[in-house]
Amino acid sequence: MPLAERTIAIAPVVKTVTVRASQAQAFTVFNTRFASWWPATHHIGKAPLANAIIEPKVDGRWYEVGDDGSECDWGRVLAWEPPARLVLSWHLDGDFQVRTDTYSEVEVTFTALDETLTRVTLEHRDLDRFGAENGERLRAKVGSDGGWGGILDLYATAANG
């Protein structure tokens, strides 16, 4: 393949936390209690965030509800495998604008280390689907302290409680 035709994929963002919870409890806190730990500052709707929801089924919605009742979709549930794995489509580009034509993926795995300890790994991948510049911008944002790392710390606090 000529050099001009080669493309380099954007590396995924991978973050890991260990929580003091069983695998099932860690999965439940992540999904069922999603709004209890998701930062209210992280929303795309015009209204302040009132709720954030992951519907517990394949092809379920992943979305926010504003305090005025408005809804904004973030993506869909691509895989629902309790208590071990969840995959979500992420339809927000590097400017956090909703894209209906493409998406990246967020995979979260829950690995039991023992009966009361679980390793949770989040991988945000396929960022290059938004194009090189937009995908790199998205990677910088979700890979930052205010992105998945900080968000998983909030999740860990909820799961440890």
Can you lay out the helices and strands and say which pair or pack?
Elements: E1 13-19, H1 23-31, H2 34-37, E2 49-54, E3 61-66, E4 71-81, E5 85-90, E6 104-114, E7 117-125, H3 132-142, H4 145-160
Antiparallel strand pairs: 1-7, 2-3, 3-4, 4-5, 5-6, 6-7
Summarize the structure.
By secondary structure, this protein is α+β, with helices and mostly antiparallel strands. Helices cover 25% and strands 35% of the residues.
Sum up the structure in keywords.
161 residues, seven-stranded antiparallel sheet, 35% strand
Textual characterization of the structure:
The structure is a single chain. The chain is α+β, with helices and mostly antiparallel strands. 25% of the residues lie in helices and 35% in strands. It is built from 4 helices and 7 strands; from the N terminus they run βααββββββαα. It has a 7-stranded antiparallel sheet, with helices on one face. Strand 6 and strand 7 form a beta hairpin.
